[in-house]
């Protein structure tokens, strides 16, 4: 027992002010979970000298504890960035970027295959804040230069699109944007920071939905923003503070715990997804497999040039002979694949999309269905898809 550090004889006082101080020197592999709203200062001078932007000290729980600081540092390392901010979700992180960098009269460019909640966010920004929101062909590459206006401040990209899977030419987009002083933000969730080195290809801001691969357990909602530029980070950090964004330390711990297996899990998702995707290419019910590692996928050549992996998410287009009732029957009759959004967890998921309602321009025929391949045995997943296809054809 360490020496007594507090005084007081009343029972309530003793319950609140314990005499015990744990010994220092404890080391273990897991990161410690530090919960706090109030952070204590050693004296008034320290309190008055506080700087909430300084990640070498602590000011208030909302601005971080050792647990969240550790997670931010680890994520920045994985993404090869310098600075990281955590947000309550991936969408919250996207919103933070838009609110930090855009104001009334500004223009932002979004890919037409953008994550659908981002499209809805764009509509809200346009209607509520007078921000111009325009959409571009995700395969436009250097041609995006022709769309940049004097008031364009930001270009968002996804690599690839998380439903229709087009792989954009990020270096070409970044070069065109930077030539006109425009920032580029990338939703890099599909690659988990492992398969695509965003900053090496010119990106200014990387968004990760940690809900997916980094969490890996389908039980955490969290997002992250990673940057290299200190001034840009400060702009994002100021908005982060004004919005009062914070995350729970238990959730931060769950993500930290699972980072050590991130590469192993990502590679396993990748291997299973490729096996299923290659098998689906041979099925007459499927007209096209939209997997970046396959030649049929738009932007496959860019994926070959710039990427080092593929993860577990891809889509297919059914032959036009099958209508929505039949493809819904297919999804309903899957046993191992469950119906639900998100990806990156151990359980496989499958979702049909009405893609025409999500795009300004979509010309490809056939019903689109997206697969998230989990960590089950690939042969079992193939057998599950095969039996569901058989049921569909009999419906």
Helix-strand blueprint:
Blueprint (H helix, E strand, L loop, with lengths): L10 H6 L27 H5 L17 H14 L3 E5 L2 H12 L5 E5 L4 H14 L2 E5 L15 E7 L11 H9 L4 E5 L17 E5 L13 E5 L2 H14 L5 H11 L2 H20 L4 E5 L9 H7 L6 E6 L5 H9 L16 E5 L14 E5 L5 H17 L1
Parallel strand pairs: 2-3, 2-4, 4-5, 5-6
Antiparallel strand pairs: 1-7, 6-7, 8-9, 9-11, 10-11
Helix pairs in contact: 3-8, 4-7, 9-12, 11-12
Keywords, separated by commas or semicolons:
alpha/beta, 395 residues, seven-stranded mixed beta sheet, globular, Aspartate Aminotransferase, domain 2, Aspartate Aminotransferase, domain 1
Task: Explain what the structure shows.
With 395 residues, this protein is of the alpha/beta class. The N and C termini lie far apart (73 Å). Helix content is 35%, strand content 15%.
**3D shape:** globular
Give the distance, in angstroms, between the N- and C-terminal Cα atoms.
73 Å
Largest sheet: 7 strands, mixed
Order of helices and strands: HHHEHEHEEHEEEHHHEHEHEEH
**Gyration radius, in Å:** 24 Å
Low-confidence stretches: none
Reading off the top of the CATH hierarchy, the class of the largest domain is best stated as Alpha Beta
Task: Compute the number of helices.
Answer: 12
Provide the residue-averaged pLDDT. Answer: 94
What is the number of beta strands?
Answer: 11
Number of domains: 2
**Helix content range of the residues, please?**
25-40%
- The CATH homologous superfamily name of the largest domain equals Type I PLP-dependent aspartate aminotransferase-like (Major domain)
Q: How much of the residues is beta strand, in percent?
A: 5-15%
């Amino acid at each position: 027992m360490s020496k007594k550090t507090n005084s007081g004889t009343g029972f309530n006082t003793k319950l609140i002010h314990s005499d015990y101080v744990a010994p220092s020197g404890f080391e273990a592999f897991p990161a410690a979970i530090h919960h706090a709203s109030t952070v204590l200062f050693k004296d008034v001078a320290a309190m008055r000298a506080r700087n909430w932007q300084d990640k070498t000290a602590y000011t208030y729980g909302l601005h971080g504890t050792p647990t969240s600081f550790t997670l931010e540092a680890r994520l920045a390392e994985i993404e090869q960035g310098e600075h990281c901010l955590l947000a309550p979700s991936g969408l919250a992180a996207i919103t933070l970027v838009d609110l930090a960098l855009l104001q009334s009269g500004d223009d932002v460019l979004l890919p037409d295959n953008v994550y659908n909640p981002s499209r809805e966010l764009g509509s809200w920004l346009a209607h509520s804040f007078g921000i111009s929101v325009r959409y571009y062909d995700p395969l436009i590459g250097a041609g995006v230069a022709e769309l940049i206006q004097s008031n364009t401040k930001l270009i968002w990209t996804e690599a690839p699109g998380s439903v229709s899977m087009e792989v954009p030419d990020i270096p070409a987009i970044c070069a065109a944007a930077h030539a006109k002083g425009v920032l580029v933000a990338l939703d890099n969730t599909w690659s988990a920071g492992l398969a695509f080195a965003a900053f090496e290809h010119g990106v200014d801001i990387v968004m990760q939905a940690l809900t997916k691969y980094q969490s890996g357990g389908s039980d955490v909602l969290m997002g992250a923003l990673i940057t290299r530029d200190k001034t840009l980070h400060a702009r994002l950090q100021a908005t982060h503070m004004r919005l009062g964004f914070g995350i729970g330390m238990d959730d931060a711990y769950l993500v930290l715990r699972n980072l050590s297996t991130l590469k192993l899990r990502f590679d396993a998702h990748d291997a299973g997804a490729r096996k299923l995707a290659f098998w689906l290419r041979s099925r007459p019910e499927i007209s096209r497999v939209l997997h970046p590692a396959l030649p049929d996928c738009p932007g496959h050549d860019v994926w070959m040039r710039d990427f080092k992996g593929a993860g577990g998410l891809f889509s297919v287009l059914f032959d036009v002979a099958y209508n929505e009732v039949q493809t819904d029957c297919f999804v309903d009759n899957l046993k191992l694949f469950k119906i639900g959004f998100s990806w990156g967890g151990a359980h496989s998921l499958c979702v049909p999309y009405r893609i025409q309602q999500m795009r300004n321009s979509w010309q490809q025929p056939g019903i689109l269905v997206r697969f998230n391949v989990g960590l089950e045995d690939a042969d079992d997943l193939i057998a599950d898809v095969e039996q569901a296809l058989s049921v569909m054809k009999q419906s």
